[in-house]
Input
Amino acid sequence: MAIILSVPTLFDNVVQRFSTELTDCPNYFGWQESAKQSGGTRRIVWIPGDPRGKLGDMLPPRSPGGNPRPLLNMLELVTCEIEASDTTTLHDERAQYQAARELFCAWMRAVHLAAFGTYTLLGVEWMVEKNQFRYGAGIRAVIGVQAVIPDLTFAFVAPAQMSSGITVDLTDVTETIVVTPA
Output
């Protein structure tokens, strides 16, 4: 049985929402930087870990008793670089700010709807690497997503939906029970 990981699941859910709401905004996943001149005016890059490469913090298990049981939980980190540009006025930095902020708000909404209660926004900053001519603007956000470190799955455990029935026929049995007070 494959383990379902929290960060790729969140990525897939956000991509699904963007495919119906913002069709011109590709999302990329991974450490290798994708080409910035991809022909579009918006893009989001999901990089596992924080900017220093930290995976996350280990936490005690939540909701024990499942199958597989959680050995630990982790606040798994992912860095999202949200970049947008307004190509109608490339020299207007206010328009670039507006484009980046609007995309950030759309991304934040998609994350919130996909992972309400299971993510933490740990930091948000402008990507201010200085260039002679800036193409658009970018916001870097680091979020922590609750993830389970599971134990083995046990196949012999009955699913929670299973039930059993016991039929007892006592028509031919007579028994006297004496109860003495304690």
Q: What stands out?
A: Helices lie at 6-21, 93-115.
